[in-house]
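INFO  loader      accepted 1 record
INFO  loader      residues=444
INFO  predictor   begin
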Amino acid sequence: MELKPKNYSVLFTLFFAVLIGIQGYQLYNTYQLKQRDIFATVKSKLNKSPKIDSLFDDDLMSKDIARDYYIKLVKNQITAQQLKGLYHANAHKTSGKLTRYVDSLFQPLGMDVILKKEILGIYFRNFNKQIADGPITVYTTQGNFRRPVELSSSEWITEKTETQKIEESIQSKEILYTFLVHRKSSFEVTNLHWILFKELTSLLLSTLFILAAFLWLFYRTIQNLKKQQKQITVLHDVVDNVSHELKTPIATLKIAAKTLRKSTDENIITVIERQVNRLEHTLAPLTEDLKPSDHPPVTTMELQAIFDDFKLTNPTIAFETSPLPEGKLCLGLSDATTLFQNLMNNAVKYGAKWLKVHFEQKKNKLSIYVQDNGDGMEECELPYIFDKFYRIQKNNIHDTKGLGIGLFLVKKIVDRYQGQLTVISTLGVGTTFKIQLPLLAIPS
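INFO  predictor   done
INFO  writer      dumping tokens
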């Protein structure tokens, strides 16, 4: 079963969506893998470095001092908020030093890393009574955390026995203070996305190139299919038109041949000659070799005669010409006749009610404008109108008969004389052909 162009587009869209999904999945997996590698590098580097706590013992709150503050907290000698303030003050002292130390580890690797350690909660006695909740910052580098990654977590158990006198007695008792502290260290690579982007740039560009190439190949394939389909349609139409044009002279020649069998008549011979000429005229464009004309350049009088013949055969058309050029055109008479007759007859054939031929001479160049108010053409048709056998279709039916050879001949003539041919057309408004040709030059 032959697929329609719409079905091809649907299938391509599905395949392209699958391709995007595959490429996107590969990019995502590579992104995740690179991210894990970066995190593993940071963890390894931090774990191999000396304990941060021991680097700044003079500024950080020592474990013994911290335990004494916990006891004061239990005795209500300080508040939990005051304890947090003490930790914060010590963390602030070490922030600058810690930042410089961490930068020295990771900046040579192109990473911006920030680090912090927090207390999540402090518990007393059987570890079921929380005396301070977190987070309480023990130390931190400078920077804002958005998506911290856990480096490690631990539990610290500390205890101390104190002797306490019993009121109104010389006796004393020993009290055991036991605390459980939940702690967590975290880090964040603040330039993580930039690092990943740099590492994935080549993969991203190759993915975009593959997708763009896939789109371009599909576009070129569709364009070629459309062009081939148009060429096939044009060739079928040419065959139909040629068959139609040949029916009348062939039928006439058959009748003439039967008449000649009965008697010789000069009139019958004339009819045969006329029909043979008609056949030659019909087939001539199909076998046109477009060799340069050996005739001298067309004169102003010969050019005027071409326009006079057109006005004579098209009396209902409002025809206007500007003054003809003073110098001789490079075109031979035969080429000039073919060029102007094709352009003017096409205008009439496609609905023009008025036609204007205008000349503009500048130095050694002559610009010729052939303007009409006919049916006009859609912009998408303009790249093809000079192709051999191409004819504009409406609903797959040609409005006029012809072989689609006229504009092809015009373009070949202009190119042979090193000229330029452009066209401007608006559907329902009309068409203007602009031809630029050299003056006083004969093609080699």
